[in-house]
């Protein structure tokens, strides 16, 4: 039976072979699963963290751009339409 199912044989009393210790059997059978689980967990954690960081950064930049640039652009376009100047030279004052 030891030859037929070597990984499942836990040994007999007095047997000090590789299969006599159930902890080594569990570690050899399930040790690599913990590694894959930890890699998957780390991948998910880093993916979520990166997604949150990029999302926050993009939202902050877009909001800052809209808060600062958009009102000035609208004011410039309004002034150009109001005073009849169509060359939009006032946009240079935004930069």
Can you walk through the features of this model?
The model has no long low-confidence stretch (mean pLDDT 70). The longest helix has 62 residues, at 22-83. The protein has a domain at 40-93. The chain contains one helix and no strands. The protein has one helix at residues 22-83.
Tell me, briefly, the overall form. Answer: rod-shaped
Largest sheet: none
Order of helices and strands: H
Structural class: mainly alpha
Percentage of helical residues? 55-70%
Could you tell me how far the N terminus lies from the C terminus, measured between alpha carbons in angstroms? 83 Å
Number of helices: 1
Query: Beta-strand level of the residues, as a percent range?
Result: under 5%
How many runs of DSSP E, i.e. beta strands? 0
Q: On the 0-100 scale, what is the average pLDDT?
A: 70
List unreliable stretches of 5+ residues.
none
């Amino acid at each position: 039976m030891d030859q037929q199912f070597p990984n499942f044989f836990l040994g007999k009393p007095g047997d000090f072979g590789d299969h006599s210790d159930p902890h080594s059997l569990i570690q050899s059978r399930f040790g690599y699963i913990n590694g894959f689980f930890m890699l998957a967990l780390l991948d998910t954690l880093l993916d979520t963290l990166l997604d949150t960081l990029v999302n926050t950064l993009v939202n902050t930049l877009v909001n800052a751009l809209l808060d600062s640039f958009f009102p000035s652009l609208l004011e410039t376009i309004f002034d150009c339409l109001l005073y009849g100047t169509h060359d939009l030279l006032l946009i240079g004052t935004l930069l």
